[in-house]
Amino acid sequence: MPTDVPPLAPGAVLFACNFNQVRSPMAEALLKRLVGTRVYVDSCGLKRPAMVHDDSRDEDVEAGVDPFAQAVMAEMGLDITHYRPKTFGDLEDSSFDLVVSLTPEAHHRAVELARSRAADIEYWPTHDPTLTEGSREARLEAFRQARDSLARRIAERFGDLAASPIDLAPDRAL
Fold this sequence. Notes:
single chain, 174 residues, two-stranded antiparallel ribbon
């Protein structure tokens, strides 16, 4: 009998990090591209992002996804510019089969979440590219490394659930 049995396919996956501005939205977009609508995918953070001033509206608003994360995802043809960070409390549904935590802090919260429901928890420690200092290119490279690390991990974990090109085609494209 084989001992290397692949995990069951989840119907709903949640990626969690600290602020839901970099790693978890990137992971969400990457998995959605891979599986299409075969799996429900969402992401959240532990805390609300800081407020930033919107000059066009002359008011403070919650910060969105990090611009460097937006840039490196756009390199892959994925648009996360309209994504709005949310917390565990903002989730419309918390019935996830699998919660993937990307930071130690999010992992602790995921374990708490799993105590009251039947959810599997996986911890994928992922470097925080926002900690990188230096030139714009050096910072972009750190974000690319985080993106690529997540993409590899997602392909390894969920590759057998990949949607066909037909499933991913825009409506009326075929």
